Amino acid sequence: MTLAPEHTTVRVELLLGGRWLPVCDLADLTPGRGVAALLPDGAQVAVFLDRAGTAYAVGNQDPFTGAYVLSRGLIGSAAGRPFVASPLLKQRFDLVTGQCLDDETVTVPAYTVRTSGSEPAGLGG
User: CA of 82: how far to CAs of 22, 33, 54, 93, in Å?
Assistant: First the structure.
């Protein structure tokens, strides 16, 4: 008989330089809100979880103001495209592509995201 683990840690990971980098635990995210994370190269990323449970990540710097605030923006969707609206000037950025929905000449970095489960300590093989 196998005992079921008490909990499994699910991590949010970004694809950087051809390898997956763990950024935070999925439990650290609140649906509809973002968190900021610092990448190894010093860049900041804004990580979001939508209400359907899908994780997204874009650069945290608002290109219109230079402030690192996108993680504090509100997420929504327009024409089926998930976006984050900057809390400062309200420009919307597509969470999949990084494209500004209000000015097609502006983008923010967008990252490939996955969630990855790991076994609790002591149960790995």
Answer: 23, 13, 10, 8
